[in-house]
UniProtKB/TrEMBL annotation:
It comes from Paraburkholderia guartelaensis. Keywords: Oxidoreductase, Peroxidase. It comes from the Bacteria. Residues 1-32 are annotated as: Disordered. Its EC number is 1.11.1.6. This is Catalase. The keyword Membrane does not apply.
Length: 206
């Protein structure tokens, strides 16, 4: 794919990987849009990366949710620190009685959401988001609220392309603080490659 700048109108959906190791390895991919491009991400990725434009057009023509996800207007964030991130995977949480609750993670900026108008974003440098977040985190921690959105009856738990119902029931879990930026971002991204099997359900029983 050709490189897409931070200020291009067709920029890809913002996504980040969040994780930790204190209670075993856990990794949560978050998107700044609710939902995902496909039930099976590989199909969506293959369509977007296809050499033949007709293949992508055919795929999007027969998958309205994928087309809506890809073509939705995405306002330009003032910072990666001012974007919300919505988990696309549904996790099961089992309490001491054996009752199961299904939920998806949300990572929400403590300082709220802030965006540029398209005209103002067009004046920014091509990598303004990367530059801004490095400068910001060098002066002060970037904080996000870690929240669980509880699934409601009728929600499609096994379909990441469909967001959970808008009747939100959430549980506050804590705060994520980002205190520094890595020196080699590209190498760090390779190390953080999302591996679903890295999440061990047995470690998350209440």
């Amino acid at each position: 794919m050709p490189p897409i700048t931070d200020r291009h109108l067709s920029r890809a959906t913002g996504s980040r990987m969040f994780g930790g190791t204190k209670r075993g390895s856990w990794r949560v991919p978050g998107s700044d849009q609710r939902g995902a491009g496909s039930v099976v991400p590989l199909f969506f990725g293959n369509a977007i990366l296809a050499d033949e434009p007709a293949f992508a057009e055919t795929y999007l023509g027969s998958h309205p949710l994928a087309k809506a996800f890809l073509t939705a207007h995405k306002p330009f964030p003032r910072s990666d620190a001012s974007l919300p991130y919505f988990g696309v995977d549904t996790f099961s949480f089992i309490d001491s009685r054996g009752d199961v609750t299904y939920a998806r993670y949300q990572i929400l900026p403590v300082g709220g959401e802030h965006y540029f108008a398209d005209a103002d974003a067009a004046k920014k440098s091509p990598d303004y988001l990367q530059s801004e977040i490095r400068q910001r985190v060098s002066h002060t921690p970037v904080r996000f609220r870690l929240v669980l959105q509880i699934a409601q009856p009728g929600d499609k738990l096994d379909d990441p392309s469909v967001a959970l119902s808008s009747a939100l029931r959430t549980v506050e879990l804590g705060t994520i603080a980002i205190t520094k930026a890595v020196a080699d971002n590209e190498a760090a991204q390779r190390r953080l490659l999302f591996l679903p099997n890295a999440n061990s359900p047995s470690r998350w029983r209440a």
